[in-house]
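Need residues for this backbone.
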């Protein structure tokens, strides 16, 4: 059930505090400026074997985050940071990503993606008390 709710194409509708979040997790000033001005489309697919893919597409760059629930994996973020991530489900509507950097000074982050009844995907990014909320609408 959860996979079906998340699967599809989602277009960014609004973004709040994303620049501060990116700065907190160590995104370079140039990448943060680019990240804050682009309007990404997120495409979520789930294969029959349980492999998920969250593809983020912008006019500048696209990236794929491929994973299986409850399995830690190495991730390279869109801006090039290396981390260890694990995704878990909280019920059918919340997908939680626990992202930890690989360097001692890296700031950990929790990214919660929730599919709401109004056909939106609300992504809340949290690091060191800084919270960003991004709202996507199903295309």
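Answer:
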């Amino acid at each position: 059930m959860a996979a079906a709710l998340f699967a599809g194409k989602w277009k960014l509708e609004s973004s709040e505090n994303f620049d501060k979040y990116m700065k907190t997790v160590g995104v370079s000033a140039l990448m943060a400026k680019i990240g804050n001005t682009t309007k990404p489309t997120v495409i979520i697919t789930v294969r029959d074997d349980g492999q998920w893919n969250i593809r983020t597409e912008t006019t500048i760059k696209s990236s794929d985050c491929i994973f299986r629930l409850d399995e830690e994996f190495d991730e390279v973020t869109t801006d090039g940071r290396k981390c260890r991530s694990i995704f878990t489900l909280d019920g059918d509507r919340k997908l939680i990503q626990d992202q930890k950097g690989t360097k001692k000074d890296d700031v950990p982050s929790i990214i919660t993606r929730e599919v709401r009844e109004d056909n939106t995907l609300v992504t809340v990014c949290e690091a060191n008390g800084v919270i960003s909320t991004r709202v996507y609408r199903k295309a």
